[in-house]
Amino acid sequence: MSILVMKFGGTSVANVDRIARAAKRVAVEVAKGHDVIVIVSAMAGETNKLVGWVQETAPLYDAREYDAVTSSGENVTAGLMALRLQEMDIPARSWQGWQVPVMTTSAHGSARIEAIPTENILRKFGEGMRVAVVAGFQGISPEGRITTLGRGGSDTTAVAFAAAFDAVRCDIYTDVDGVYTTDPRICDKARKLDRIAFEEMLELASLGAKVLQTRSVELAMRYKVKLRVLSSFEEQTDEAGTLVCDEEDIMESNAVAGVAYSRDEAKMTLTGVADRPGIAAAIFGPLSEAGVNVDMIVQNISEHGQTDMTFSCPNDQVLRAETALNQAQARGDIRFEELVTDQGVAKVSVVGIGMRSHAGVAAQMFKALAAEGVNIKVITTSEIKISVLIDRKYMELAVQALHDAFGLDKAA
Amino acid sequence: MSILVMKFGGTSVANVDRIARAAKRVAVEVAKGHDVIVIVSAMAGETNKLVGWVQETAPLYDAREYDAVTSSGENVTAGLMALRLQEMDIPARSWQGWQVPVMTTSAHGSARIEAIPTENILRKFGEGMRVAVVAGFQGISPEGRITTLGRGGSDTTAVAFAAAFDAVRCDIYTDVDGVYTTDPRICDKARKLDRIAFEEMLELASLGAKVLQTRSVELAMRYKVKLRVLSSFEEQTDEAGTLVCDEEDIMESNAVAGVAYSRDEAKMTLTGVADRPGIAAAIFGPLSEAGVNVDMIVQNISEHGQTDMTFSCPNDQVLRAETALNQAQARGDIRFEELVTDQGVAKVSVVGIGMRSHAGVAAQMFKALAAEGVNIKVITTSEIKISVLIDRKYMELAVQALHDAFGLDKAA
Predict the structure, then answer these.
(1) Were both Cys, which of A322, B4, B278, B387 would link to B34 (CB 3.0–4.6 Å)?
(2) What does the CA dihedral A277, A279, A284, A285 come to, rounded to 10 degrees?
(3) What is the DSSP-derived secondary structure letter of residue A354?
(4) Cβ burial A41-51 (10 Å sphere, 16+ → b, else e)
(5) pTM of the full predicted structure?
(6) By the CB < 8 Å criterion, does A64 face chain B?
């Protein structure tokens, strides 16, 4: 018996017709001999509607009740999908999170899956059931309350089930047909990748390519789950979409796999900061407490015992960051001359495991940007990623230039 | 500690604003010192939407999946109501059926409540919680599947909780301000009753006065739950609405408490039926198997070993009834000369526990109808009810005439 996990996102189950179409995809896999675990999201728009009601009812809501309300959309889809499969004479039934049970932490709104007992579902497979339809995004806390895994959490549900049931593969059906070298909306040469390494996908996911929830990729990497992203709107073969897989399953690769961007960034600089041990902690501690997601950090060289400290954060957190820093100054915890904010920047990154073996990727990147007259404001690098902060008006140009420079329109 | 059960129907929680208004009503009772169990229905329209999706997905649906889908509307309202109460600084939390757990039979779509353990909710009350918000209409089967109690089932949930927790009263908030002597839409002299006996309410409920689910009244009668029907759209006092109570709690009563009607009835007559022992069973057995709800039955006196058999059923079951009877004739199970169907009839009934002590109610009823030239086609009686089948065109006239004849516009 081979178990396949198939996950359908909100647009893939947006209405009764789309649920019927998704059910046909499931039937194809059942006919191939798989027992299938289907993970479903809420019908597109439903979760937003529920979240809206919660916010209208209680601006400062209790996260436990938020979870009880917002998890209901997935239950509806799960029941409807099971019914549709039964109509096609495929033995199927639905499971809500608490019925499996999907055991999570008590961190309501962003709970982590701790265990998925497989006995109940395996027994049903043993009794002839061919498809278990499971409501994604939800679980149950040790206290018996309903939890949710955060937006996009159904991806994580799918990967966790694939790991728990040792599935042959986890197919994520979505409204795009795979992972691209960059966003096709701003670069018409963007090319769909047949394969991408977990590490690359992680960097791309956290950089804003919203194909998969970051946590689902981490989980897939840890448990070596073969993860495939493909479109629910096209006829599919076993080779369709993009396979997110272990580095060693990728034979040959470009130095760079993709170019990612993040539009709404802000750059903040503290000038005239006293350069002493512990100063970074004194600055970034209050920012963290204020809920500011600091991304890139650069410290200039010190002169006369003073330095400049630059960091980036999402644009809509600037006010919070300014308040936190001014309060820290008022308390005497830090001292700086000036706080300079630039809200007109964007982040552009190149990502690729090939960087480990290909030298000169950074130089090639900076050269391509310079050739287009794009000024770089901040640079950070990791083993498989180079990111730069640039003026937002050059963002599209930079993405296109880098896509060309690394030959991403051609396969490796 | 006194526990009060309050139930809010679909129109009373139709949107976020109405939920807020209902929460204010709950706050009033909390301020009086009650611990409150709130039972909520789905927001008006939600359950119909879900049922529509199920029927579209699978015309011959699996009742277990139907229940899993349709129960989700109540979960949303329960969470929102708890959130709203918390906003008003009232300690509250929501419970879904499986969390209590509301233990029911496995009769999906029309399950019966078997037990409601009180420990969890009582412990929370002991810890300072003031309101337990429970999703109505749903429970959990011995197999761990979600069940529903049938349309209007939240009334039954409310009464069952009131019985289990020995509540001081069970208040049913709805879109009408109580139980009337008859339908105010067809008789402008209709008067709201302050009190009505369980038995009377049962007859009225089963006759089509859709204020309360019949089963909830039966349950209230069995467990002596004081049941009050009142409007969620008006300011309310402790004496508002109509109290449905034990006969002995009603001091003085009219011979007749109310006039009920049922518009869409059909009268069917089998002529020339061989009058032999077991003939009634031979006729009504097949009708029952075909799902025809036979209401009134009249057998004429026998002549020459033959008789006529007349019965009534809902208009939309006529085709089913005709098919079943013709098939029984074809099989040789029964014999009749002709099947005469009259789809233009209505049923009008007078109901009152006072009939037990007041003589001549039937005569008074027939006289009042005769005075208006209304011909009676079929009559049936019970201890506290007299029903007649008449031409549908006289229905409103008959209701008004009977309301006048029994002086229902004046209190006893």
Answers:
(1) B4
(2) 80
(3) G
(4) bbbbebbeebb
(5) 0.82
(6) yes
The interface predicted TM-score of the complex, written ipTM, equals 0.79
Q: How far apart are CA B39 and CA B45, in angstroms?
A: 18
Contact across the interface for A65 and B54, Cβ inside 8 Å: no
Cβ–Cβ under 8 Å, residues B96 and B72: no
Residue B31 class from Cβ within 10 Å (0-12 exposed, 13-18 middle, 19+ buried)?
exposed
Cα separation, A284 vs A279, in Å, equals 9
Distance CA(A71)–CA(B79), nearest Å, equals 11
B38–A contact, CB cutoff 8 A: no
Please check whether residue B243 is in contact with residue B194, taking contact to mean a CB–CB distance below 8 angstroms.
Answer: yes
CB contacts, 8 Å: A62 with chain B: 82-83, 86, 93
- What is each CA distance from B299 to A71, B262, B275, B294, in whole angstroms? 57, 22, 10, 14
Query: In 3-state terms, what secondary structure has residue A126?
Result: helix
Q: Closest residue of A to B99, CA-based?
A: A144
Residue ranges of A 92-131 with Cβ closer than 8 A to chain B: 93-94, 96, 98-99
* Contacts of A281 by beta carbon, 8 Å cutoff, 6+ apart: none
SS3 state of residue B119: helix
- Strand locations in A12-97 (E): 35-40, 92-95
Question: What letters, b where the CB count within 10 A reaches 16 and e where it falls short, cover A68-89?
Answer: bbbbbbbbbbbbbbbbbbbbee
Ordered per-residue pLDDT tens for chain B, 412 residues: 699 999 999 899 999 999 999 999 999 999 999 999 999 999 999 999 999 999 999 988 999 999 999 999 999 999 999 999 999 999 999 999 999 999 999 999 999 999 999 999 999 999 999 999 999 999 999 999 999 998 789 999 999 999 999 999 999 999 888 899 998 889 999 999 999 999 999 888 766 566 788 889 999 999 999 999 998 887 777 778 999 999 888 876 778 999 999 988 999 999 999 888 788 888 999 998 888 888 888 887 777 888 888 999 999 999 999 999 999 999 999 999 999 999 999 999 999 988 888 878 888 999 999 999 999 988 888 888 999 999 999 999 999 999 999 999 987 6
A330 touching chain B per CB within 8 A: no
Q: Domains for chain B: give ranges and CATH numbers.
A: 3-175 (3.40.1160.10), 259-405 (3.30.2130.10)
Alpha helices in B207-278 (DSSP H): 214-223
By CA distance, what is A91's nearest residue in B? B62
Token representation of residue B325: 């009877």
Q: Quick count: other Cβ atoms within 10 Å of Cβ B39?
A: 31
The Cα A80–Cα A13 span in angstroms is 10
E strands along A41-193, which residues?
92-95, 103-104, 113-115, 131-135, 138-140, 146-148, 169-174
Quick one: tokens of A186? 């701003």
B57–A98 CB contact, under 8 Å: no
Task: Measure in Å the smallest separation between the Cα of B99 and chain A Cα atoms.
Answer: 7
Report the alpha-carbon distance of residue B386 to residue B358 in Å, rounded: 13
Query: Residue B20's closest chain A neighbor by CA?
Result: A57
Helix (H, G, I), strand (E, B) or coil at A84: helix
**Omega before A277 cis (within 30°)?**
no
